[in-house]
Amino acid sequence: MASGSSRNSKPSSQSTAAGPSSSPPIPIPPGKTDLKSLIPTPPASHKTESKTPDLRQRPVDDTFGYQFPPTPGDAPPEKPKRMPSPSFVFDRAEVILKSLNSGSNTRERLKPLTEETFAKLRAAIDFDTPLPFEVELEAFEEWSQNLTDLGGYEYDPTRKELKILTLPGVTHERVAQVFNKWFGKVQETFQQEDRMHFTHNEDYTLENGSSLTPDGYISVETGGPVVAIEVGVSQPFDKQVEKAEKWLLKGPARLVILVDIDIFTLGKGEFTSSVTSSTSSTLESQEALPYGITKRDLESPKAKEIASKIYSWYNDKTALAKLMHVSLYLYRHKLGNPKAINQDAKFVIFEESSGFINWGSSEGFVTTNDLDIPIGNKKERVALPFDLLQACFGPALKKEQIRIAEKRRERY
Q1: pLDDT, tens only, 26-56
Q2: Given this model, what pLDDT does residue 280 score?
Q3: Confidence class of residue 127 from pLDDT cuts 50, 70 and 90?
Q4: 256: buried, middle or exposed (CB in 10 Å: 19+, 13-18, 0-12)?
Q5: Closest among 387, 377, 388 to 187, alpha carbons compared
Q6: Which of 51, 132, 186, 228 has a C-alpha 20 to 30 A away from that of 77?
Q7: pLDDT of 25
Q8: Do residues 72 and 281 touch, judged by C-beta distance below 8 A?
Q9: Cβ distance 214 to 225 under 8 Å?
Q10: What's the average model confidence in pLDDT over 102-125?
């Protein structure tokens, strides 16, 4: 039976209910709805912890975003969808490129591409990426003068194309380091420590205004590169030959060393992530994710532990990254025709079907003429670093696989 108080009267601080006419009102304690009490609690909860933690304050890139995670009793029949996040690398690249494309002219479009934004774009892209608009030579020169000379881009004035280079992978870097180490032997062999210099990953402007960023080059005194080193990992070979042409025909190079590496990344798209749709009451049945990981793993802040599980899962069956072939090429000017180039030598260092191939010091070498060293030097040539190249691939591939595993962890 309802109380006889007016509907518009001011509510008291304590609710009451009317009892029999002979009894005083019975006080009812203030009610407070606890949302957490409405959510099923996993049976495995610990008494020392909050049974159902409030996940609503988690960062937006958390596995479940701002949603409550499913529990064994009420889990949906499909995988909980991860909330979209601007921290994904492909999202960041797209946002940066769109911001550049909004200017009215080339200078205005390049203004937002500051040194900081340029570094973020390099880290965000997976492949060398041309800007989505033409860049005139004057606009490029003005833009490049405002950047620290760190490389990471290439410019072609004929195509009016400014290409942003992705950050090199582990294998790429290890091979480049091999030639840096080998340069010490070159200096020692020819006793040119004071005249010769090695430059790593720095852009160089050619005669026609093109800008290239080699993986390394050898210069003599204050001159330009006489030997340019280009390393390509899973890149079209004709694009690498195009660089050799530019170095020899539009630049000061006498020799271009190309290292062509093909790495096949296994498992791309093969193992789709799916959660078991069973409505079983056991927690484990709701955590069947690929690579041997569980939802509990995903809630862990330690990304390296997840990457280790993914790496181990693949390592039991096959490699995450598999070396297919490695070849080294030497390009020089064609004899008697300085306006043409010639592939003077090709050395197959590794084939997936046969393994590593040994080359002797007398079979591949760099000469005093390549290095612009005066005639009469006691030594006339120095062997290419075949042994160092062979030794670098094992450790490099292992780190490459771990990096791939870490990236795949970010997807879940």
Answers
A1: 555 555 445 444 455 555 444 444 444 444 4
A2: 33
A3: confident
A4: buried
A5: 377
A6: 51
A7: 56
A8: yes
A9: yes
A10: 87
Give the chain as a 3 state SS string. Answer: CCCCCCCCCCCCCCCEECCCCCCCCEECCCCCCCHHHHCCCCCCCCCCCCCCCCHHHCCCCCCCCCCCCCCCCCCCCCCCCCCCCCCCHHHHHHHHHHHHCCCCCHHHHHCCCCHHHHHHHHHHCCCCEECCCCCCHHHHHHHHHCCCCCCCEEEECCCCEEEECCCCCHHHHHHHHHHHHHHHHHHHHHCCCCCEEEECCCCEECCCCCEECCCEEEEECCCCEEEEEEEEECCCHHHHHHHHHHHHHCCCCCEEEEEEEEEEECCCCCCCCCCCCCCCCCCHHHCCCHHHCCHHHHCCCCHHHHHHHHHHHHHCCCCCEEEEEEEEEEEEEECCEEEEEEEEEEEEEEECCCEECCCCCCCCEEECCCCCCCCCCCCCEEECCHHHHHHHHHHHHHHHHHHHHHHHHCCC
Sign of CA dihedral 237, 241, 246, 252: positive
Task: Average the pLDDT over each of 24-28, 251-255, 278-282 and give the range with the smallest value.
Answer: 278-282
Has residue 21 got a pLDDT over 70? Answer: no
Tokens 């093909």, residue located: 262
